[in-house]
Queue: 2 jobs
Job 1
Amino acid sequence: MQKPEIQLSRLSLEEKARLCVGMNFWMTQNYPEYDIPSLFMSDGPHGLRKQDVEKSDHLGINESHPSVCYPTASAAACTWDRDLLRRMGCVLGREAAQSGVDILLGPGINIKRSPLCGRNFEYYSEDPCLAGELAAAMVEGIQSAPAAACVKHFAANSQENRRKAVDAVMDERTLREIYLAAFETVVKKGGVKAVMTSYNKVNGDYPAQNPHLSRDILRQEWGFDGILLTDWGAMDQIVPSLQAGLSLQMPGNDGSSVRKLVKSVEDGRLKEECLDGAVLSILRVIQSLRETPAAEPISPEEGHAFAAEVAKNAVVLLKNEDSILPLGENDRIAVIGEMAAEPRYQGGGSSHVNPYRVSSALEEMKKLCPGLVYAPGYSGAETNEALLEQARAAAASCHTVVAFIGLPESFESETYDRTSLDIPPAYVRLVEELAAVNPRLAVVLSNGSVISMPWLLRAKAVVEAYLCGEAGGEAVSSILFGRTNPSGKLAETFVGRIEDSPAYLYTPAGEDRSDRCEYREGIFVGYRYYEKKKIDPVFPFGHGLSYTQFAYSQLRLNRKELSDGEELEVSCRVTNTGGVAGREIVQVYVGRVDSPVPAPVKELREFSKIHLEPGETKEVAFRLGKRAFAYYNTALGDYYVPDGQYQILVGASSADIRLWDTVRVRPEKPWQPEVTRNTILRDILESPQWSAIFSEKYAQIQPYLPFGLDKMDLEREPFARALLNNMTLHSLASYVGEHLRDEEIDALVDQMNRAAGRS
Ligand code: BGC
């Protein structure tokens, strides 16, 4: 293949414009005469949804070619396993390449702002570190085959309600720290080759045509040089979009966008270099795919077995009172609930996969325990009195009961949000009635996102299986019978009441007609919010049980003080103190003591999943760099680490911290805000540099301040201290007139700014 630059030079204006608009629903324009092939795109995040071009849609309406259905993102994230996600990416990449798919439209990495978002099952986490790290690993895997990953939806795609009109309005710090951070990791660390813009606007404009997001941050700051494409039908205005850094409008239209592009270049409204930049980004991806060695094809059987492996690592054991799990294979067991036989294993919409075969928990459990008793218990989402009676009788006659419930398919999907955390009342009633006849009750949940559990006290054990893909049946059965030791942990907080969730007051839902959604909770999303507000969740972020126990010891930091240009090495030991082998997810959080800006109690900054045989001990080591301690300083326009003490907290969940220590981190380049006439005295006096400049003048004007300073005990009297501390330079001047003139203030301000390195 010729170099992209040479290919570009051979294309006419119209040919270039055609490359920037889909040729049809799934493909880009091809030019065999220039050796430029089409790029074929397919969803998606947890399995291929390859459609024939003649039977295309972006909502999972028409059937796609059969392919393996892996656990959805909300489940896969519970593995907290970078290596497994990398392997999942490899498998997806191989399947894509063998099916002739060049760009896989996933993974989805939006942050779960509200538990109600209809697409939460397609997203990883409420935490940007976890989402970014897992996605980067998955992207590396996909791109190890000749296939490009396309992360989506850039950015802040947090709701389905009014999804194409809503404007996600937030401050720059929130945007950077919460909603862009995972994208940044996937671009910088994962080397992703394509990014899809979101349907929603961000701070006033669609991301495709938002120069701040797409040009300044994505392209210039992060150095992304791949394809930036619109979500399907998300194009508003193509000329400003290309100017802002977009490469490709999807899907194609009747040629009108091409005509607009050509005309705009001819009119001089669009610079040809801008079009060239977009074309080059596409040609570069074509070239990199050609240079990637061919991948081995994958069989449906291999895919299914791997889907089972991911699912086994994803399932989360939320509760296990009296250790009623694992079940004995010789026990008399009642399996209740239609969902055991007809599993809910994926979500609705554009990510919908047409699987080769789906295993049910019931058929898999029967293989291990042929004598089990099954009763459907309900019909769809409705109570059926006869089925309920039959289920009660089955439960009463058995040693242990396993009830399968969750969210029916119609409760969560792309295109709409949920309006509550409730599951169907029929399922709640089932749990209550079963518990009344047999207290040894385990509940298995199939749902794509957080639900409320008013029945929790009635169940001794709860297994969260999420939407676990086509092999979820094997995983659930293996975990229930203890053949697999559960090792998944929650990637989101299970809050009890929607009213307690961070976005509750600010998220237009249901019939709300507002297109402006203000993210007023700011950076306080998920556990960052619940911890700060001291709201006890039902199950905290990072929680998950095992059939064994792990002891943490010997936290070591390689230094007690460092600059933000250095790395902190953190290590600890973890021992499996129980009787079976297991996998533990060690989580490292950092909390800033006395933060100068609003800050969460702590934030996840690193994690690792390790395997331990009974009695085995392993040392786990982490490195924390600048970003682990930094916040986004909007005045500086960069991440900044304020000088101070930081807590290093290592634990088994956000609420189960086992080891901690503190470290001092100093910025290499200390930053001070700009001094102005409105700077307060406290800020000036607390800065050695500034107070050295100001103190002489301050001593001179004190006798003229009308507060009787000589009678106040400035050291001890809070009133006097606060009064002065909060005084601005201009206010001080307003009391002393000639003794602090405007020119003097300006000169002092100037001097202080120069001392702090500002010219
Ligand atoms: C979805 C995308 C998807 C695209 C193509 C859109 O409706 O938002 O996530 O990749 O369709 O199917």
Job 2
Amino acid sequence: MKNHYHIPSPEAYTEACHQATKSPHDFWDTIARENFEWMKPWDTVLEYDLSIPEVTWFKGAKLNITVNCIDRHLATRGSKTALLFEPNDPSKPCEPISYQALYTRVCKMANVLKGKGIQKGDRVCLYLPMIPELAIAVLACARIGAVHSVVFAGFSSTALATRINDCDCKMVITSDGSYRGAKTIDLKSIVDAALLDCKGVETVLIVQRIASEITLVAHRDYWMEPLLALASEVCAPEIMDAEDPLFILYTSGSTGKPKGMVHTTAGYMVYSAFSFQNVFQYQEQDVYWCTADIGWVTGHSYIVYGPLANGATSLMFEGVPTYPDAGRFWEVIAKHKVNQFYTAPTAIRALAKESLALVEKHDLSSLKVLGTVGEPINEEAWHWYDDHIGKNNAPIVDTWWQTETGGIMITSLPGITKAIPTYATKAMPGIRLALMDDTGQELTHPKAQGKLCISYPWPSMARSIYGNHKRYKETYFSAFKNFYFTGDGALRDADGNYRITGRVDDVIIVSGHNLGTAPIEDAINQHPLVAESAVVGFPHHIKGTALYGYVSLKNAAGKNEDELRLEINDIISLEIGPIAKLNKIQFTQGLPKTRSGKIMRRILRKIAQKEIDNLGDISTLLNPEVVQHIINNAL
Ligand code: WTA
């Protein structure tokens, strides 16, 4: 099978951009028709009305994404490795899973789900470590039309329960535990705690990973393996409508509970596959490795769906970059002769701090493309990656996108368009970017800085927030009429290259993970001694941005501040997960407020960033004395 959507040259890129702008319907129509298997073709390529907003791609088409990711490869690539599993412990064997084996394992698991009553449209929560069963469970759901909701297995039981209840999951698939470096984590007991608050879950399937003693709840909990052993190896793919939901994935919002972004089938498939091929310039014999967890969108689009739709070999890594030592990534690249490597700036910064000997003892000459995602990459980290990992011979793609966009929106194409350190550079063909000023006007001058928007639908855009279309409209389509607003700021140079400057809302990106300030503050405020709190970001040498909490106490007489800090972080861990813990906690007498009572986070942000000479306009500040006190005691 040949990919007709491959963009192999600068000329082809220019031509694709031209075509996609001039006649987007024809552009996507050709790509969809020539590169995928459909059970029924579409009636129209795209219908949309961004004022509702409603977007329909490939209306009337019927398909199953797993046929495109697995079945159609069997004739030509049956014995090719689809997933290459590298376990946490390097002394344990790695496990190559061929397309043929993947087919069988997905069908078997799909039949197990059916046997437990899961039907098309039902939501299934996957709370699993990075083991093959996670990818297989994703595909098994898609096989039968169930909607998967993968929850990152580092989230706490409370966060898990919120996500299970929000989309009414009927089933949870988990494991007895997980390995993370030298530690094991008892996932099943986290699930048990979550399920005390989740009445809708009928079945829990448990994959055995760490062979720990667990308690099975009668008529609810079942080990996966014995069920798989009995399951049939054939499972006909469910016939799905182009716009049937494929998955829900939660992302943090600036306010309130997490947003369950709903992605649908056909458009997501077309765009994740198209972007994978072109951003990584994948060739048939290549081994591709994305280090993300499938609990994040990067893992959905660029470990599972995008690579498999292209018949690629996708490496799946269970462990952490620092176990058994901080050379593990480089060791794995050398061991499997990885050709494309895709990771996060936070990992690059952390590993750049380690001895270069850990890099140099491994042969990295197989690398052809390096990628980054999740947060801005600083210049120093970019050059370290380029010099020491790519040896100035593997172009870096700095890929900007979001859970909401489903696929990479801004990037260079390796060897085809120019990479510029700290710039994500240019839009993918068919993606129309816009910068807006604060009055809602589009900035049309080439060189500009403003709020980043997208002005035309693309196939993999999220269609809604589960159960709350109103919030979807308000969050993404209300700031600027007829534009999708990303929540990010960006600047554009005279040549049309984009550089992301960071979030312009109350979402903070810590180590590449989106965290909303509101849920963290809610957690802090649960402490009985806390009156109120505000969380902001500040620059951090490894995490990119870390969290600074300002906490005003009710009456803390006699309380040890360090003990309080531990207690507050414990609550955050419990409510959200360890990723949301605060790096700094400053106790204050009060928080700076406007006359209308709104916390002035801008000021707190400046203090946390040590920019106290430039606090900006403080004329609306109700309580200047509080600010002085906070400055005097800043950490
Ligand atoms: C940030 C991750 C700068 C950005 C795929 C975005 C980036 C948010 C980049 C989405 C990048 C992602 N350069 N910032 N290359 N990639 N971001 O939903 O703020 O987990 O809005 O999706 O991460 O994070 P999410």
